[in-house]
Specification:
Blueprint lengths: L2 E3 L16 E7 L5 E6 L3 H13 L8 H10 L4 E8 L4 H11 L6
Antiparallel strand pairs: 1-4, 2-3, 2-4
Length: 106
C-alpha cells in the first residue's frame, strides 16, 4: 500500500506501483472525509489529473463537496492511497466502497 500527500506526489520516490492501475482512496486529512475511485491509467497520471481538475472550479464532473474541501484545505490537505493494484471493475470498486463507507462517494 502506498500513501502519499498529493502536494508531494511529484517529488515522491519512484515506485513501480504508482505506474499501475487499480483502486485508490482520496482522504481529506483535516476532516477525515474519503473518496474511493478507480483508474484504468496509472495512479500517478490519475492523481495528477485529479489535482488539475480540483483547481478548475468550472469542472462539473467533480463533486461540489470535494471541491469545497479542496478550496478550504488545498493540495496539502489531501492524500492518496493505493488500495489495490488490479484491473479495475465496478464490482471491485464497490467492494472497497462497502468496506470503507467513504463520505464523498454519495
Amino acid at each position: 500500500m502506498i500513501r502519499c500527500n498529493i502536494f508531494r506526489l511529484d517529488r515522491a520516490k519512484p515506485n513501480p506501483q504508482l505506474n499501475q492501475k487499480g483502486i485508490y482512496l482520496v482522504r481529506c486529512v483535516p476532516t477525515g472525509d474519503t473518496y474511493i475511485g478507480s483508474t484504468n491509467r496509472s495512479f500517478r497520471i490519475c492523481w495528477k489529473e485529479f489535482r488539475k481538475q480540483m483547481r478548475n472550479f468550472h469542472n462539473r464532473r467533480i463533486s461540489l463537496r470535494i471541491r469545497n474541501l479542496w478550496q478550504a484545505y488545498g493540495d496539502e490537505g489531501f492524500e492518496f492511497e493505493v488500495l489495490e493494484v488490479t484491473e479495475p471493475t465496478p464490482a471491485k470498486k464497490h467492494h472497497y466502497i462497502n468496506l470503507y463507507s467513504p463520505s464523498l462517494n454519495h
